[in-house]
Amino acid sequence: MKDVAALARVGTKTVSRVINAEPNVSAATAERVWSAVRALDYHVDLQAGSLRRASGRTRTLGLLLSSIDNPFASAISRAVEDAALPREVSVFASSLDDDAQREEAAVGAFLRRRVDGLILTTMSRSAAYLLPTIQRGTPVVFVDREPVGIDADVVTSDNRAGARRAARHLAAHGHRRIVALIDRLDIQTATERRDGFVEGLTSADSVRATIIDGLHDSEGAERALGELLAGEDPPTAVFGGQNLITVGALRALRARGLQRSVALVGFDDVPLGDLLEPGVTVIRQHPQRIGAIAADRVFARIDGDDSAPVRIVVPTELIARGSGEIIAPR
Amino acid sequence: MKDVAALARVGTKTVSRVINAEPNVSAATAERVWSAVRALDYHVDLQAGSLRRASGRTRTLGLLLSSIDNPFASAISRAVEDAALPREVSVFASSLDDDAQREEAAVGAFLRRRVDGLILTTMSRSAAYLLPTIQRGTPVVFVDREPVGIDADVVTSDNRAGARRAARHLAAHGHRRIVALIDRLDIQTATERRDGFVEGLTSADSVRATIIDGLHDSEGAERALGELLAGEDPPTAVFGGQNLITVGALRALRARGLQRSVALVGFDDVPLGDLLEPGVTVIRQHPQRIGAIAADRVFARIDGDDSAPVRIVVPTELIARGSGEIIAPR
DNA sequence: CTGAAAGCGCTAACAG
DNA sequence: CTGTTAGCGCTTTCAG
């Protein structure tokens, strides 16, 4: 900036004014400054600025999700970016792989970089470690999973109701032997979906439900379902607890040619789910909406909204495409 | 930091030493400092530090891709994050939507935040605007697309050869009326793939190839192919120039029940392409590998590697799953 | 092993 | 309308 000031023959403060579009600079001076900026390919150092700036804001956000590689997370990511763009806020992104240690490390890394706010899919047994951060004025909005031990903004899907709906849907199609393939139970949404699934069945008569939990990826789910299908008294219907699990289930069914005889409902949409044969019936989530709402919340908090924390639930919906409407045999 | 120093009854420099694991601090002093850090939930300000630090490094990277929402980009993203994690580097991510203006804006935003390096899928007619940046010591590694007007590290797929292979594959299965659905030609890979496709056909006899370019999303591709299929002398085979286009083509074929009679080869893999019926034959790219190599290059440059720019081409491969092996009628 | 002083690039506060 | 001075939180340098 000194160099620009020297080249434009003005003081550094004038350069600062021009660059930040502050008033009280004559057009001629401004033009001199701009041409010096162009000549030197100068870019202000925002970080240095925020050090001194009254607000202390860095115009930076931290986004922490399970894995950017998962369409659910990348849709959230995209929505957050889109909300950040017009505000000239840059987004730090980090995949946590549902690992609590990685979560704390990544949150720490972002805090050391003085992000103005955090959007977080937490994995921690307790998110209380973020309390001082919030109190010090760095808002945290939780997405996808409810945090434990902290009262803060949360945006989630309607996990329990969605799973209940899936269970009822399968029972309504005559299924009495249903298996639910569930993620690791240390993931909050997994227990929610399992509970919802169980709730959905209590009203139905004599359904024999098997719950397999601790599944986390496609391969594990495929293997688990494969064993059940090969065993005695195999299920006539499957509930896939998240998108990767549903994909694993699809593969297990396909491998045995059962995709048209065993029913399947997945939680969270699956890419090209409408193009498979049969189409994959899912409880659709709205990750884009979740991301947009979460971004709205952080920015509102950053802008000083200090109302009570809110808990926003984005409804899911059942998309019937065929796989979930397969009728139970006999 | 002053507060921590006061609480631990040491100077700020000692706090700095402890936090940065520098030598020459007694164990007892270090412990006092750590407990003060915990008591205050203190996090160093890395940005303030890098202002004064000799290296000037911010341990920050800028990653600019077409859209994080596309599996190709999110795989790259994931690979870059994984390379950044052990180096304690945080990654700024931004989707550019193949918009040159958005690109320059996002690059500027990251430069103003003093990233140590940039990984970029460029859209600009000329990337020469980055020359001063590179000369000043901020490395830029281009991914996916070759930049124009600048000599810098590039990591791409084997676009031309891959497209050639796709064309030959279809011709070898007897197709003589083939349509290539190509992205906007201002995207470098689109012209490469179109040219490769055409090259692949010149050796084959009397193939009537139609090239439709300017397609950018699934819907556009679906509409374009739909019209061709409904017209006179419809194609017997289709080449999808990128993953979204391939999906659009799949939908167009499905809508007319032609997925088993019209051949299809797509460039870039499609999610669940192996589970569709027929399976989708693709020229598979390796985005994860591209991302990993690109990250390696930036970090090498950041660490002072000033050898000549390299141009790394990651080979593609044809994955035959059925749709591309449909034989031409008659 | 420890701390004081200076200064990184910028903006706030104020003086002209 | 413009410039000067101080200081943001840290690390460098150097002196104890």
UniProtKB/TrEMBL annotation, chains A, B:
Superkingdom, natural source: Bacteria
InterPro entries found in the cross-reference section: HTH_LacI, Lambda_DNA-bd_dom_sf, Peripla_BP/Lac1_sug-bd_dom, Peripla_BP_I
Any one GO MF annotation of this record: DNA-binding transcription factor activity
HTH lacI-type domain mapped to chain residues: 1-53
Keyword annotations from UniProtKB, A to Z: DNA-binding, Transcription, Transcription regulation
Keyword Hydrolase: no
PANTHER family linked to this entry: HTH-TYPE TRANSCRIPTIONAL REGULATOR GALS (PTHR30146:SF109), LACI-RELATED TRANSCRIPTIONAL REPRESSOR (PTHR30146)
Protein name as catalogued: LacI family transcriptional regulator
